[in-house]
Description:
alpha/beta, globular
Amino acid sequence: MTHEHSFSLKSRTEQKRFQARLVSVSPLFIGAVSALLYLAGLLPLIFLVFALVLSIIAPFLDVPAMVTSGKLRYYFPFLLGETERNSTLVLHAGTLFDSWFLFRKDMSASERKRLAMGGMIEGMINLIEEHKRADRRDLKVRTTSYILNERSAAMLGLEKRPTDAFQTLILYYNYFNLAASYSLLNRRLVFPVDQVGTDLRRQHGGADRAQAISRETQEQPPPCHADRGDFLTTSPGPLPAALRLHA
């Protein structure tokens, strides 16, 4: 897996052309659905359709713009980090934008899961190494993911915790966005049905587990079923190679 994002390999003109097509098609779709809702006497539902379309196209516009402005950075494909604020680093384990551009059409579902999981793990290792060199001891790391389930998270040294209500609300708002990503991951139309927003805390040995799983993902699909949206969190503490952040 290359560190270079396939979207960034496009010329600036190609990137703008893709985004322009996406933006131009969206009003046509909303207009067609509005006409159907009007005929059915359900026009007030157009606000729901508008919110749905907005949640779908937003990552295709926001992610490239925020990366260009420095508000987001890729630690590796499928793992992004926001600009650090108040000693807190917010990570995002891939978006619909990443799924669209990084999954080749000929890839099987298991290959896509391996690619996504491997990208997250490699990104976490890069993060660990970067902050190990900086000898950071006050960093809190939080992330959302539709890829990790509880079993996969446990292999990375994470444990379940109560869910952050605000992040859960955001995840539910982006339900159809997540469903689209989930469907691309599985190569078929699938809707997440498990609880959205599981809270997990970092444990000891995370880096060693991440390194081992990184090697395994080069040979076989990870034990990842991508069947829920997960919310991971770590609290302040020393940050050596294991990314050990204690409560």
